[in-house]
Amino acid sequence: MELAVFSKLIGSNLLRRAGVYTLANALNSAIPLLLLPILTRYLSPGEYGLVAMFTVLSAVVAAIAGLGTHGAITREYFILSREGFSGFVGTCIFILAASSVLLLGLTVLFGPSLTGVTGIPERWLAVAVLIGVGQLL
Known about the structure:
Blueprint: H1 2-10, H2 13-42, H3 45-66, H4 69-77, H5 82-109, H6 111-118, H7 122-136
Helix pairs in contact: 3-5, 3-7, 4-5, 5-7
């Protein structure tokens, strides 16, 4: 009896999908770990700190620009009809675009101050905003 349940579980679609998800997450997490020896060899500690600050800034931008739309989309996926859901996603993308323009404007306006706090050159601040927004898309 237990063997039949086990063999049925092994062949299930859920297990295959969970395996693909786990493998993709493992590979995604392994990339920074595999790059660590290369980055530490070719970058000075100050430059490595700059890479870390850039990564943190792009993550903060993603959190601010998203305004919680990622969680809202996930929630509404199970509630709305197909037609209503596509309109909701379109609205969320519009919100993301509007908040991105606002963040880019603030980055240009307060660029020197942000450079003083983070150490990231001004020309890279806008790139950090674009990468943060791209992560949400």
